[in-house]
Specification:
By secondary structure, the chain is an alpha/beta fold. Strands 2-1-3-4-5-6 form a 6-stranded parallel sheet, with helices on both faces. The protein has a 5-stranded mixed barrel with strand order 15-16-17-19-18. It has a 3-stranded parallel sheet with strand order 7-10-11, sandwiched between helices. The chain is globular, with a radius of gyration of 23 Å. The site of 5'-deoxyadenosine has 12 residues, from strand 13.
Length: 482
């Protein structure tokens, strides 16, 4: 908990405060009252189940939801069928993410028939789409609470509204320039954490729905970010992942503008912090200053995620990516010149409208030249409301599928080869968890993000340990303590 507020001493019969985050702490106290009443009736506290879909941003948002649920007195469960409250933090970047949510809602409906007291909440990017909310209001009346990405900070208030009524509570905002700081967070890992540095996106890549559901770019003030990192480090965190849709435009619109590279250099100074990662960097505006800040740093991990999307300059232009194939290749060469051992990963979309066999070959060509450590490959998904959805020359499904398989095979071939380059060396590994399949092994991560399994115990977790990399098994290593 961030503030020295004793929720039990709060006067919940007074008028709610207007200021944030005080208002939300007031509603957490209100929710706590409801939970006490539940406990009196049922002899136990209510169980809450959280399911996250999508990216690291959503994962971080879910930690905030769980922080509030914890303050409100809910008990966490990872068994959905035991839950009294279920919340899905949704994603809508591709259509299949939406389909998964609708599928799961069918299952939740069956659970609710068995347990009519079950309350269901939906939030996240999908809820920012009008047609989704309309559909829920019409055909999914058993959902109790719907809210979006812009008012997630109001979760305590909305939860309280849901608890004290029987009707469906729906509250979504179009956009906001508000950033509410100092709300509680319940971290998934004790030793590493995501840290939002900015929200939203202004790039409007023509296929992407993110700018419509996450709104315009807003940066957090550097003092708030650094203060949060200091607090995390004091609480045992050794690795942070700085999160933004495009970290390269961090700080540009602040009252006192600052670059992302400057922020990195400031974070570097924080004593006790061992590793710094960040996501995601747009190739159009990755600065020399950033490359140099990475090269100079002892803490910034030797890894950069640099989404390519397509290797064809023609398609890149239609995608509104604002770089060409040649510029992208020149950028990766420059990065490797300054930071020779860096691992480069990427995102690639196959089957963007109008993509020809020649365009696709250009993508394969970039993959062969850059030799990515790993790549996320996606089949283009038509998102309503984006410019690309209205383009006429959509590529037939069977053609896309064949290209996708060819790309995946190439990416995996190269990745296996590139990943094995450290065999026989000793590298620092952050031990993350006891291996789920073999309890004698611990799984950790090298600074280039590769996984390593090695004999160890739960006592290793959260520590950075030198590990001898014995054998490479494709996308991970088997190692032993050096
Ligand atoms: N179809 C397929 N992939 C998409 N991405 C974003 N929008 C779409 C879409 N409409 C991919 C991009 C992005 C990653 C997060 O998701 O590759 O980098
Ligand atoms: Fe989407 Fe492009 Fe923004 Fe990334 S940079 S979130 S792909 S619009």
């Amino acid at each position: 908990m961030y503030q020295e507020i004793d929720l039990d001493k709060m006067d919940v019969n007074a008028e709610p405060p207007i200021e944030e985050p005080d208002r939300q702490y007031y509603f957490m106290a209100k929710c706590r009252e409801w939970v006490r009443e539940f406990e009196r009736k049922n002899g136990r506290r209510p169980f809450a189940f959280t399911q996250t879909f999508g990216c690291q941003m959503n994962a971080r948002d879910s930690e905030k939801l769980e922080g509030i649920l914890e303050q409100a007195g809910y008990e966490k469960t990872d068994r959905e069928e035991d839950a009294d409250f279920v919340i899905y933090n949704t994603c809508t970047v591709r259509e299949n993410a939406n389909q998964r949510v609708y599928g799961r809602l069918g299952y939740l409906h069956s659970l609710k028939k068995k347990n009519p007291g079950l309350k269901i909440a939906l939030c996240g990017c999908m809820m920012q789409e009008k047609q989704v909310v309309d559909k829920l209001k019409k055909s999914y009346r058993f959902v109790n609470l719907v809210f979006g990405t812009h008012n997630i900070f109001q979760f305590a208030e909305l939860l309280n509204r849901m608890q004290s009524g029987d009707h469906m509570v729906v509250d979504t905002w179009e956009d906001t320039d508000q950033i509410v700081e100092k709300l509680p967070v319940d971290r998934k890992y004790s030793f590493k954490s995501g840290v939002n540095i900015m929200f939203g996106c202004n790039n409007f890549c023509s296929y992407c729905i993110v700018p419509y559901v996450r709104g315009r770019e807003k940066s957090r003030r550097p003092e708030e970010i650094l203060e949060e990192i200091r607090r995390l480090v004091a609480d045992g965190v050794v690795e942070v992942m700085l999160l933004g849709q495009n970290v390269n435009s961090y700080g540009k619109n602040l009252e006192e503008p600052i670059t992302f590279a400057r922020l990195l250099r400031k974070a570097e100074q924080i004593e006790g912090l061992k590793r710094i990662r960040f996501m995601t960097s747009h190739p159009k505006d990755l600065s020399d200053e950033l490359i140099q800040a990475m090269a100079d740093s002892k803490k910034v991990c030797r890894h950069i995620h640099l989404p390519l999307q397509s290797g064809s300059s023609r398609i890149l232009q239609a995608m509104n990516r604002r770089y060409t194939k040649e510029q992208y290749l020149a950028l990766t060469e420059k990065i490797r010149r300054v930071i020779p051992d860096i691992s480069i990963t990427t995102d690639i979309i196959v089957g963007f409208p109008g993509e020809t066999e020649e365009d696709f070959e250009e993508t394969l060509d970039v993959v062969r030249r850059v030799r990515y450590d790993s790549a996320f490959t996606f089949i283009y998904s038509k998102r309503t409301g984006t410019p690309a959805a209205a383009m006429e020359n959509q590529v037939p499904e069977d053609v896309v599928k064949k290209r996708f398989d060819r790309l995946l095979a190439l990416v995996q071939d190269i990745s296996r080869d590139v990943s094995s380059r450290y065999t026989g060396q000793t590298k620092e590994v952050l031990a993350e968890e006891v291996n789920s399949q073999d309890a004698a092994l611990v799984t950790g991560r090298m600074d280039n993000n590769l996984l390593v399994h090695f004999p160890g115990t739960a006592a290793d977790i959260g520590k950075i340990i030198p590990i001898h990399l014995d054998t490479c098994k494709g996308f991970y290593y088997m190692g032993t303590k050096a």
